[in-house]
Write a structure and sequence with these properties.
The protein is built from 15 helices and 13 strands. It has 370 residues and is an alpha/beta fold. Strand 8, helix 8 and strand 9 form a beta-alpha-beta unit. The longest helix has 17 residues. The radius of gyration is 21 Å and the shape is globular.
């Protein structure tokens, strides 16, 4: 059996890390697995698993994607295509209908449909609306649909108006080598560990609301000593650096840049903060729990509440509320909210690679048998 894990592009993000985790496990189960993307970004090459074939469809630009996808489907003739982006999955379903009736198509949903559509404006809103209309027309024809949380599955069911079943499979985050990765040595930017440290890990993008995090951190820092590590890179980096400079936070805020292994950084902190407007899942929450690090997250759609069991394993605060976020930070620092390290790590193991792979294999084999 030949399986394509198909992405619009392979960049340094959580979705891509999930595919990179799944591919070798599928190979071990006897499936000829390929990572296929419009473009493989140079900064993400370190994430590519060894000995997994890759196929780039649009190295010279997006305009070549459709034609090259058709060509490569004809050349390689995969048995199953598992697509991770909505527009690409719709395209595959159209090509399957016209040219490749034997290919099985699995659509996977990793991000909210409704929230970006509500928040977008202008051309971007039109784009999301058109993709949603295409999904409403085409997704009922998919061989299987997978969402990475139950809330996200319900979002898909409601907005795409699906009557067919949707499988929920949590992202495979905790890997067998996690104990080793967590203990890798790092050099912290401060000479001591006497002051409580908060950490953000992720893309520096608007949806992650690092601006909200900084506002909340500033409020806390004015009342009690604390520090903030920001791990990641992205379009908001300039804004973040300007905010730190203008608010005299240079000595207590540090940007580490992108880290291939953020786990030891997370372990070094007292609490991880996820301040997003929306998430598909929230991989970094599981990473923090695996390190035994406390979690503060916005109760955003869709993922954090399920991962944290609605506030049992970490604090959930309203979206876009810097006051509530600041209060949660204070509770984490003075341990008014506390969860034992072993309890956090036990919860993290719910989101293991082994568990997710078996569930994906069940879907794949079911699709092939129909």
């Amino acid at each position: 059996m030949k399986l394509w894990l198909l992405l619009s592009r392979f960049e340094n993000g959580g979705l891509e890390r999930v595919q990179a985790n799944l591919a070798p496990a599928f190979v071990q189960s006897g499936i000829d697995t390929w990572l296929v993307a419009g473009k493989f970004m140079q900064e993400a090459e370190v994430m590519l698993p060894a000995n997994i074939p890759i196929l780039e469809l649009a190295a010279n630009g997006k305009l070549t994607f459709i034609l090259n996808l058709y060509r490569q489907l004809r050349i390689h003739q995969p048995d199953v295509v598992m697509a991770t982006s909505n527009d690409v999955s719709c395209l595959v379903l159209i090509l399957r209908k016209l040219f490749f009736p034997k290919i099985k198509v699995i659509c996977t949903q990793h991000l909210s449909i409704s929230t970006p559509l509500k928040q977008a404006k202008g051309i971007q809103k039109l784009k999301y609306w058109l993709i949603l209309k295409a999904m409403q027309w085409l997704w009922s024809k998919a061989d299987a649909i997978i969402a990475v949380s139950f809330a996200l599955a319900e979002d898909v069911r409601k907005n795409v108006r699906l009557k067919s079943p949707i499988s929920t499979i949590y992202n495979p985050i905790v890997l067998p080598n996690y104990p080793t990765l967590i203990e890798q040595p790092i050099i912290l930017p401060w000479p001591d560990k006497n002051i409580p440290t908060l950490i953000f890990v992720g893309r520096l993008a608007k949806v992650k609301r690092v601006d909200l995090l900084l506002q909340a951190f500033k409020q806390v820092q004015q009342k009690q000593p604390c520090r903030l590590l920001i791990v990641g890179d992205g379009t908001e980096k300039t804004f973040i650096l300007d905010f730190i400079r203008k608010n005299d936070l240079t000595d207590v805020c540090h940007l580490t840049g992108q880290q291939n292994n953020p786990l030891p950084w997370i372990k070094s902190a007292d609490a991880l903060v996820l301040s997003s407007d929306y998430e598909g899942f929230g991989n970094v929450i599981v990473e923090a729990m695996a390190c035994g690090t406390h979690v503060i997250a916005t109760d955003c759609p869709f993922g954090p509440a399920e991962i944290l069991d609605h506030g049992h394993y970490g604090q959930l605060v309203p979206v876009n509320d810097s006051e509530a976020l600041a209060e949660a930070m204070k509770k984490a620092i003075d341990k008014r909210f506390y969860v034992a390290k072993d309890e956090l790590q036990e919860r993290a193991n719910t989101f293991s690679l082994e568990s997710a792979v078996q569930q994906y294999l069940n879907v794949i084999h079911t699709v092939m048998d129909t």
